[in-house]
């Protein structure tokens, strides 16, 4: 008999040893939020995208610098016939027979006026960088919120397993007591079988809870960039924070909106660039050239400086459609902003209602636990006095366990819904 019920204790012990075979780590909720936004693979990818956008902005600023080119040419030529139309004072030819040509050039062009192409090109790159940065923040907030959900789900699984394990000890002792009473003819064998069945059901529920905890723990490790074998120690949530479900509704605080507004600035910059194509380009130019034709001509110190003007005539009939495309892009972003604003308002409303419901359920769970404790006490007293049967006692035990689990899950659910509300209203900030 003792060996049979010792197996239950061994099962709990073996499951507990699983945690010791891994590296244990203690994490607070704030740690989870920071790790998700900084150490996860997705977060690092987002950082790389923002860095790329920043470098493109730095590259765009170089367009204000002058263009400089240097070139050199060497040509081997045949023996050409050279006739100089310059009086030489002699009727005979000069006998010139050049067969090599050297040319060297240096040119510098500095833009003075481009109609706004350069200025708006730089601004477009900067606004694109801002849009990418805001989009990255929005994605990181999503990652952190996902980590919060996993962290609280792990807490719920751990609490469920702990409460079931506690009840397993009580149920195992109850089976031992029932076995003794059955041997002494105090209770029927059927009552003992009911107690054993309930103990088996508790063991199954415990294994399911531990499986859930392991799966969620693995998912959380992956998301946070931790070693896969890390075992997050039993989570202890702090007291519930003071929650205001009616916090200010301002969709403009959401980074999705800020990103779209920056994308709108990019579209406006592109429109300005297209309009600038109607203007001429004025530039300062300077250079130096050297020329040497063997046996004929040498030119050095041929420096030059001046102004240049260019105008793309094709823009008069090609640029209209580009402008219309840019204007349509602006209109599309405005429509997208309206859609996202409506979506955020719905999210805020749903999050507010979820927090109110979670608060109410949490209060009811606390009442239900007190009621189930009192109910179990009364039923146990009646059972000891022969007034209640085994079914009543076992049912009261299950109700008490379920009330404890509901209260533990309800506490985590309330915190989860509050963080959902922080995210919806744009107050879920990451550092």
Automatic annotation (TrEMBL):
Entry keyword Transport: yes
Chief site of localization: membrane
Leader sequence residues: 1-21
Alphabetized InterPro entries for the sequence: OMP_efflux, TolC-like
Compartment(s): Cell outer membrane
SUPFAM superfamilies in the record: Outer membrane efflux proteins (OEP) (SSF56954)
Keyword field: Cell outer membrane, Membrane, Signal, Transmembrane, Transmembrane beta strand, Transport
Similarity comment: Belongs to the outer membrane factor (OMF) (TC 1.B.17) family.
Protein name per the record: Transporter
Classification lineage: Bacteria, Pseudomonadati, Bacteroidota, Sphingobacteriia, Sphingobacteriales
């Amino acid at each position: 008999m003792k060996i049979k019920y010792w197996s239950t204790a061994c099962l709990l012990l073996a499951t507990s040893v699983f945690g010791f075979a891994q590296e244990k780590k203690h994490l607070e909720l704030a740690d989870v939020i920071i790790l998700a936004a900084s150490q996860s693979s997705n977060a690092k990818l987002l950082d790389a995208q923002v860095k790329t956008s920043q470098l493109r902005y730095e590259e765009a600023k170089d367009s204000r610098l002058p263009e400089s080119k240097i070139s050199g040419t060497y040509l081997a030529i045949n023996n050409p016939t050279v006739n100089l139309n310059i009086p030489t004072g002699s009727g005979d030819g000069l006998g010139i027979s050049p067969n090599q040509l050297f040319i060297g050039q240096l040119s510098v062009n500095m833009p003075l006026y481009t109609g706004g192409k350069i200025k708006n090109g730089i601004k477009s790159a900067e606004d694109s960088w801002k849009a990418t940065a805001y989009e990255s923040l929005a994605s990181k907030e999503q990652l952190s919120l996902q980590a919060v959900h996993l962290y609280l789900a792990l807490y719920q699984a751990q609490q469920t397993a702990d409460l079931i394990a506690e009840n397993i000890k009580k149920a195992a002792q109850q089976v031992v007591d029932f076995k003794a009473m059955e041997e002494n003819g105090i209770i029927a064998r059927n009552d003992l079988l009911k107690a054993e069945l309930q103990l088996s059901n508790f063991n199954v529920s415990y294994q399911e809870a531990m499986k859930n905890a392991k799966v969620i723990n693995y998912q959380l490790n992956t998301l946070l960039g931790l070693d896969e074998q890390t075992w997050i120690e039993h989570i202890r949530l702090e007291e519930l924070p003071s929650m205001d479900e009616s916090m200010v509704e301002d969709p403009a605080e959401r980074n999705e909106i800020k990103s779209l507004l920056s994308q709108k600035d990019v579209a406006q910059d592109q429109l300005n660039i297209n309009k600038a194509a109607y203007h001429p380009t004025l530039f300062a130019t300077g250079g130096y050239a050297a020329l040497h034709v063997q046996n004929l001509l040498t030119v050095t110190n041929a420096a030059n400086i001046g102004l240049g003007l260019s105008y793309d005539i094709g823009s008069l009939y090609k640029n209209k459609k580009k402008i219309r495309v840019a204007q349509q892009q602006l209109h599309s972003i405005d429509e997208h902003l309206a859609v996202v604003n409506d979506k955020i308002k719905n999210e805020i409303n749903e999050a507010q209602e979820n927090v109110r419901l979670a608060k109410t359920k949490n209060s009811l769970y606390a009442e239900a636990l007190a009621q189930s404790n009192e109910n179990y006490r009364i039923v146990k007293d009646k059972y000891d006095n022969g007034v209640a049967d085994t079914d009543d006692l076992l049912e009261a035990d299950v109700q008490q366990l379920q009330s404890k689990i509901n209260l533990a899950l309800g506490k985590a659910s309330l915190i989860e819904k509050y963080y959902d509300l922080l995210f919806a209203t744009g107050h879920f900030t990451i550092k």
